Amino acid sequence: MTDSLTHRPNSLPDADLKPWYRYTWPWVLMTIPFAAVLFGILMIYMVTRYPDDLMVDNYYKEGMAINQSLAMDTQAHDLGVEAVLLQSDPGQIRFSINGVTDSVVVLELFHVTDRDLDRVLVLYPEPEPEPEIEVTGSNTMTYSAPDEDLAQLLRTPGIWYIQLSGADDQWRLRQRIQTPVQQLALHSQ
């Protein structure tokens, strides 16, 4: 007697005896979670490499800084501070500032979206030439500093916030500018 279980004919065709990795559907179904893992790794990398510079962590400190900034704007208005960017030699940045006689002036240039492009430069007063005619009531000083990069930066297209302030943080001039700039005048508000 023959055992019917041992001599049963194979009902599957030979093409279906391939290993699993030779079929298309397992690979299609595996690519979806694999792509999600890769996308998650990419997002973690982007978040750690390029943090969101526009977010504020401590709103109380930010509010106090805004109040101090408004006081600096008011002080600049009371002093009648005005500044004009002078055309000067390449590699030299010069501002003529009216209304202050600080020992140094801090020039800050903030890019609107990229913190890595921000620049801070300390401007020192230039020695004044002996005037041939004495002018009374003129309180204008020229401040300058050597800087090749800033002059180039003012000639390339972009949107920036420029801020001039005294070394003691008593006054400031702040304005949004779009580069390239030919003439730049900052007025107290």
Task: List the keywords.
elongated, 8-stranded antiparallel β-sheet, alpha+beta, 189 residues, Immunoglobulin-like, 28% strand, 2 domains
Model description:
This protein is α+β, with helices and mostly antiparallel strands and 189 residues long. The protein folds into two domains: 14-49; 59-131 and 138-187, Immunoglobulin-like, CATH 2.60.40. It contains three helices and eight strands. The chain has an eight-stranded antiparallel sheet. The radius of gyration is 33 Å and the shape is elongated.
Helix/strand-derived category reads: alpha+beta
Number of domains: 2
Mean pLDDT: 79
**Count of helical stretches:** 3
Give helix and strand order, one letter per element, not per position: HHEEEEEHEEE
Number of strands: 8
Q: End-to-end distance, in Å?
A: 110 Å
Question: How is the secondary structure organized here?
Answer:
Elements: H1 24-49, H2 59-79, E1 82-86, E2 92-98, E3 105-111, E4 119-125, E5 140-146, H3 148-153, E6 158-166, E7 172-179, E8 185-187
Antiparallel strand pairs: 1-2, 1-8, 2-5, 3-4, 3-6, 4-5, 6-7
Short description:
With 189 residues, this protein is of the alpha+beta class.
